[in-house]
Specification:
This protein has a single domain (5-90, 125-201), classed as 3-Layer(aba) Sandwich (Rossmann fold). The protein is globular and about 50 Å long. The chain is built from eight helices and six strands, in the order βααβαβαααβααββ. Helix 1 (33-40) crosses helix 3 (60-72) and helix 6 (127-143) packs across helix 7. Strands 3-2-4-1-5-6 form a six-stranded mixed β-sheet. Strand 2, helix 3 (60-72) and strand 3 (80-82) form a beta-alpha-beta unit. By secondary structure, the protein is an alpha/beta fold.
């Protein structure tokens, strides 16, 4: 019998740039003190899981979250590795803005965006290209010969699109995925297919 595999997906904690209300994509904002506390609060949910590797985004908010978890779980630092494809989508000219600020600065864009007529923020990464990038990374990752449990620490868009890629979800199902800051989602492989065990678990 093939040993079961699980992919644990963690979204980083709150940042100094207020991840909860601002569109932070490619801009590299660090974790806030509250964000570090949020990530440490996840340790009881992950303790005892024999992770074989920790893969994370190169952006500091995800890299530090991964380092906090690895240290708290007494994992060897050699198990951590960066994947450049796990960067969040770029919001272009709207990086760091709130919804209200974007609406004020780019009213035509925001109206069209809300109606689903656009594929990218002004000067940002097209959503289709982003989805393809994340799907490629996710499929390559699960195609590796690891066994057991693997931890991936990244961003809201990365977590959602990884789940969507491995479960072949449609756009509506993707949009419905709730992935809060400092949350844990778990995918399990069963008979060669992936299924969602847990979505957005928090302490």
């Amino acid at each position: 019998m093939t040993e079961a595999r699980r992919l644990w997906l963690v979204r980083h904690g709150e940042t100094e740039g207020q991840s909860s209300i601002r569109y932070h994509g490619r801009n590299d904002v660090p974790l806030s003190h509250a964000g570090r506390q949020q990530i440490r609060a996840l340790l009881p949910l992950l303790r005892g899981v024999p992770f074989c590797a920790v893969v994370h985004s190169p952006l500091s908010r995800a890299a530090e979250s991964a380092a906090i978890l690895a240290e708290g779980l007494s994992l060897d630092a050699a198990l951590l590795r960066v994947d450049e494809r796990l960067r969040e989508i770029s919001f272009g000219a709207c990086e760091g803005m709130t919804r209200e600020e974007i609406d004020a600065a780019h009213p035509t864009f925001w109206r069209d965006n809300e109606q689903g007529l656009l594929d990218a923020f002004p000067g940002g990464e097209p959503r289709g290209r982003f989805a393809a990038r994340v799907a490629a990374a996710a499929n390559e990752l699960v195609g590796e010969p690891w066994r057991g449990d693997l931890l991936l620490v990244a961003h809201r868009g990365i977590v959602k699109h990884t789940i969507a890629a491995l479960l072949s979800l449609g756009a509506a199902e993707l949009d419905a995925l709730g992935v809060e800051l400092a949350s844990v989602s778990v995918l399990r492989e069963h008979d060669g297919a992936w299924r969602l065990d847990v979505l957005g678990m928090r302490p």
